[in-house]
Amino acid sequence: MDLHPVLLAGGQASGLYPLNEAYPKALLPVGNKPLLYYPLRLLEKNNFKEVTVIVNSRDLKSIKQSLDEYPRLASSDIEFNTFEVHDSDETGSAVALSALKASGRIKSDLLVLSCDVLSTVSLIQLWEKHVTLRSAVSLLLVKPLPSNNSDERQKTSTPAFGKRERERKEYYSYIM
After folding, report:
1. Looking at residues 50-65, what average pLDDT do you find?
2. Rounded percentage of the chain residues whose pLDDT exceeds 70
3. Is domain 1-118 classified as CATH 3.30.565.10?
4. What family is this (predicted)?
């Protein structure tokens, strides 16, 4: 499989204020672990051995430190490469990915994950479907949970990735 995972960990998470005052979004603690540990674990479970983490210059030092601690905490041998993007108003995910591709560091197709992905979906299965359909882009989407009505939320509180595989397939969306 010629696929290189890229983890987007450079977002500011301005909507999470005041939580993001002390930590970058990728390092916000969730279940006693930094948020970025969860997509890293997902990549490992799908047999990826290397990942490039895109991070902004402001958070580079703290995210590198967390990545250095990850193998010890997760009993992992995954390799990390960081790619620094400099803070500016024009820096977004598309600009960061274009800069990474232009750097020549990536020679294969990309699997792009956000640092806030909490899922157990089979990335290999998604990739195989992508190849089979000869898609240019594949997206994994889930139905959002209702936001205001607590009665409706209780009825639909199971996220899509927690459903059985048969039911989960309806959430794959392919663009050819």
Report:
1. 90
2. 69
3. no
4. Belongs to the eIF-2B gamma/epsilon subunits family.
